[in-house]
Amino acid sequence: MPAQHNIRRAAHAALHAWGQGHDYAETLVERHAQRYQLSSADRGLLHAIIFGVLRHRRVLDHWIGEMRRGKLDNDARDLLRIGLFQVLILQIADHAAVNETVEAGKANIRGLLNAVLRRAVGQKNKLLEKLNELPPAELHSHPDWLFKRWRKHYGLDHAIALMEWNQEPAENFARYNPLCGQPCVLENPLPGVPGFYQIEGAIPIKLIREGMIYMQDPATRHSVEMLAPQPGETILDACAAPGGKAAMMAAAMKNEGILIATDSNEKRLPRLEENVKNLHIRCAEISQHDWLEPAPDKWQGFFDGILLDVPCSNTGVLRRRVDARWRMQPKDLSDLPIVQKRILENALPCLKKGGRLVYSTCSIEPEENTKLVATFLHEHTELRLIAEKQVLPCVDHTDGAYSALMKLI
Question: Is residue 362 among the annotated active site residues?
Answer without folding.
Answer: yes
